[in-house]
Design a protein that fits this description.
about 400 residues; Rossmann fold; 5-stranded parallel β-sheet
Length: about 400
């Protein structure tokens, strides 16, 4: 209630709390439900899960609060600069004295929220390398055991089994039943992929679902399914929807099939076609066995000639290196010096123990008359007794 001021008799005076309550009541009564278009600005995701941002246009700004209870079902990621439509109610936050929009729903402007979520997740996983060809596992030509993740009651599984039986009825098929649409479907599909990786003997896995809208196929666009496919050690074929439909699973999988029926045709060859091809190969082998033997014999001869040439070359190179080393050793050998007219003199002890026990004489110091010396020349050695020592002064 307005307070009466005795000085200002006749004036209607409000306290701050009173006027903010009145403004709040007027605003919330006037705009209980409203759609507002604008550009996201100053987006913040609080640790509580609440989202806070501003909607702006060329002239104005409106603060927004998008509480956790309302934003849990949001499929795409809100970012600054994004143009959106927000649905909610206008309120007044007393603490700041500002009006704001309490958001209940957000839609991208110009593109659906699911399509935007698809593009955002595709971009994110592509940057992480989940679509890289280098990571993809080759699908075996003749798998003995095939795992299929799909609904047990849908048309997809019937089509797949019919084609497999027609093309090659000797293979083993393991069906893992899951929901392929609605709440909890993505979790079931991801768990199925992980469980089948624990089963021994499965050579290839097919993820299958018939056609439908983007919403119907959404389970195969969930990040959990994409990461389960990426982590699979078994090659995965994605067969979701019709030929024009693309899901995140298609980009991560080791092979994409345009339809479930096409997946059955891709995963296993036609038995009759293989039999015809084998028979054709047998006829060729029977017709040209001698030619094949002669061709391989010629290849063996060519290999032998190349091997002999390599060996001969290697021996010649080795011999040349050996001769070079021998020449170097001869040049450094003391015996080579003797051949050029030089000699080596050893002072022998009084009692010769062995021919190698003498002391090499470099000058006349330490030599006395009567000493026995041995002189080594090219071709032999001489033993002498010192009779006279003549010392020469150094010049």
């Amino acid at each position: 209630m307005p307070s009466a001021n005795p000085v200002d008799t006749g004036r209607l005076i409000y306290t701050v709390t009173q006027i903010t309550k009145e403004v709040k009541l007027v605003l919330e009564s006037a705009f209980p439900q409203v759609w507002i278009e604008g550009e996201i600005s100053n987006f913040k995701l609080h640790s509580s899960g609440h989202m806070y941002f501003a909607l702006k246009d060329a002239e104005s700004v409106l603060n927004c609060a998008f509480f956790k209870g309302s934003n849990l079902g949001l499929k795409f990621q809100i970012k600054d600069g994004m143009k959106v439509l927000c649905f909610g109610r206008i309120g007044f936050y007393n603490k700041t004295g500002q009006s704001q929009l309490y958001v209940e729903k957000v839609e991208p402007r110009g593109v659906g929220d699911l399509q935007l979520a698809f593009e955002q997740l595709k971009e994110k996983l592509q940057k992480e390398g989940l679509f890289d060809e280098a990571h993809k596992i080759p699908v075996p030509m003749l798998p003995a055991k095939i795992g299929i993740v799909t609904s047990p009651t849908g048309a997809a599984i019937r089509d797949i089994l019919h084609i497999l039986r027609r093309r090659f009825n000797d293979i083993e098929v393991l069906i893992y039943p899951v929901k392929v649409q609605g709440d909890g479907a993505a979790v079931q599909i991801a768990e199925a992929i992980k469980d089948l990786n624990r089963v021994k003997g499965i050579d290839v896995m097919i993820l299958a679902r018939g056609g439908g809208s983007l919403e119907d196929l959404w389970a195969f666009n969930e990040e959990a399914v994409a990461r389960a496919i990426y982590g699979s050690e078994i090659p995965v074929i994605s067969a979701v929807g019709h030929e024009i439909d693309y899901t995140i699973a298609d980009f991560v999988a080791d092979m994409r099939a345009p339809t479930p029926s096409a997946a059955a045709e891709l995963v296993i060859a036609n038995k009759e076609d293989l039999a015809d091809k084998l028979e054709s190969l047998v006829r060729i082998l029977r017709k040209y066995p001698i030619e094949a033997v002669e061709r391989y014999s010629q290849e063996i001869d060519d290999l032998r000639r190349r091997m002999d040439s390599h060996i001969t070359h290697a021996v010649e190179m080795g011999t040349e290196q050996l001769n070079s080393l021998v020449g170097m050793l001869d040049a450094l050998s003391p015996l080579a010096i003797l051949k050029r007219g030089y000699s080596i003199t050893l002072q022998m002890p009084k009692r010769e123990v062995s021919p190698q026990c003498g002391r090499l004489l470099r000058d006349v110091k330490g030599v006395k008359t009567g000493d026995i010396i041995e002189t080594r020349l090219a071709g032999g050695r001489l033993t002498s007794e010192v009779k006279e020592i003549v010392k020469e002064e150094a010049k």
